């Protein structure tokens, strides 16, 4: 008896369900053979019913025996119901992984414009996970404790593809999520962007800097969309008492970036792997602070749900500081991806309203959250190159050759750089 109790206590919930399903199948099979023995031939309808039941059981069993990444057990008190908008996207899906593995109940909402089911498919069927195909521009009525609001296209070619939709997502979508946060009393974190600084006149940028944005330029749908999204967050906080956090993400790269994302790192890697020239817009002297995808996640979870000692003011939470300028000879992604193939560099006209330099001042984030980037650029790039190589193989098997997306280029004379 003791031995049986010991075996049962060693079984987890999924194994228990598997055993129950097996027992049910055995029972049905038994009944089936007995009824045939007793009544001779069964009616066709009865047989169909039996077959349906048995195949249903098999589906049930295969879903129980599916392997998921390890998930921590959290008590009812500590386990939160978390909504991640844009949770099937490049950054969102990594956040989904982190919060799932931490043991929370995660609902991913995505309209799959730039997000992909593939990014979260490893969680489908897990009892803590739900995937909803929904556009945040429409209201959403669910019960949650926390909201991570990431939904929006983020790469310049993607957000410029349909500027009105980008504006709607960042304005109406954010209003809907704030309305939800207010109704259910949830805390909301808005994933904002370094693009709120536009083409900054102050360098490096800290939380106090208000930015320098062209309100009618091609980037405005995103820059101004995120700026008004931030304004909405603070208005809801002041007027309605909704707890909000705003994190401004700088240039992020890593696995699960879409092949056709169009940002510089994914373009360079794809071009290098395909033996194409690396396209540099303008002189290549523009600078960016690149960070690996795990960095913003850590800052999100540090700033948003669990710690209460974070001030209401925005935190510019990002950035791998690069002292190397974004120049053609030193440009880190370019020089690194050069190692993948001996690609040439092709200079193209500069992108319209392209910020000349951007780098965050992370002192506040470091002081308040104890946060700083840890993955060196080269290591991050290596991981991303490996991911893209695997993706290319996968795409080749599907007879699809991805092409990097081009930016909207400026017409006329190139801008004079200081
Ligand atoms: O193929 C390319 C792509 C881009 N670039 C240049 O590389 C620099 C970086 O461009 P990216 O498209 O990667 O990113 P951007 O800095 O323009 O915008 C990004 O910034 C921060 C994020 O939060 C935003 O979501 C994203 O819009 C720009 O100067 C761009 O003109 C190239 O030289 N070649």
From TrEMBL:
<dbReference type="GO" id="GO:0033320">
    <property type="term" value="P:UDP-D-xylose biosynthetic process"/>
</dbReference>
<dbReference type="InterPro" id="IPR021761">
    <property type="entry name" value="UXS1_N"/>
</dbReference>
<keyword id="KW-0812">Transmembrane</keyword>
<dbReference type="InterPro" id="IPR036291">
    <property type="entry name" value="NAD(P)-bd_dom_sf"/>
</dbReference>
<feature type="region of interest" description="Disordered">
    <location>
        <begin position="396"/>
        <end position="418"/>
    </location>
</feature>
<keyword id="KW-0472">Membrane</keyword>
<protein>
    <recommendedName>
        <fullName>UDP-glucuronic acid decarboxylase 1</fullName>
        <ecNumber>4.1.1.35</ecNumber>
    </recommendedName>
</protein>
<keyword id="KW-0210">Decarboxylase</keyword>
<dbReference type="GO" id="GO:0032580">
    <property type="term" value="C:Golgi cisterna membrane"/>
</dbReference>
<dbReference type="GO" id="GO:0070403">
    <property type="term" value="F:NAD+ binding"/>
</dbReference>
<feature type="compositionally biased region" description="Basic residues">
    <location>
        <begin position="405"/>
        <end position="418"/>
    </location>
</feature>
<keyword id="KW-0456">Lyase</keyword>
<keyword id="KW-0735">Signal-anchor</keyword>
<comment type="similarity">
    <text>Belongs to the NAD(P)-dependent epimerase/dehydratase family. UDP-glucuronic acid decarboxylase subfamily.</text>
</comment>
<dbReference type="GO" id="GO:0048040">
    <property type="term" value="F:UDP-glucuronate decarboxylase activity"/>
</dbReference>
<dbReference type="Pfam" id="PF11803">
    <property type="entry name" value="UXS1_N"/>
</dbReference>
<comment type="pathway">
    <text>Nucleotide-sugar biosynthesis; UDP-alpha-D-xylose biosynthesis; UDP-alpha-D-xylose from UDP-alpha-D-glucuronate: step 1/1.</text>
</comment>
<dbReference type="InterPro" id="IPR001509">
    <property type="entry name" value="Epimerase_deHydtase"/>
</dbReference>
<keyword id="KW-0333">Golgi apparatus</keyword>
<dbReference type="InterPro" id="IPR044516">
    <property type="entry name" value="UXS-like"/>
</dbReference>
<keyword id="KW-0520">NAD</keyword>
<dbReference type="GO" id="GO:0042732">
    <property type="term" value="P:D-xylose metabolic process"/>
</dbReference>
<feature type="domain" description="UDP-glucuronate decarboxylase N-terminal">
    <location>
        <begin position="2"/>
        <end position="69"/>
    </location>
</feature>
<dbReference type="Pfam" id="PF01370">
    <property type="entry name" value="Epimerase"/>
</dbReference>
<keyword id="KW-1133">Transmembrane helix</keyword>
<feature type="domain" description="NAD-dependent epimerase/dehydratase">
    <location>
        <begin position="82"/>
        <end position="292"/>
    </location>
</feature>
<keyword id="KW-0325">Glycoprotein</keyword>
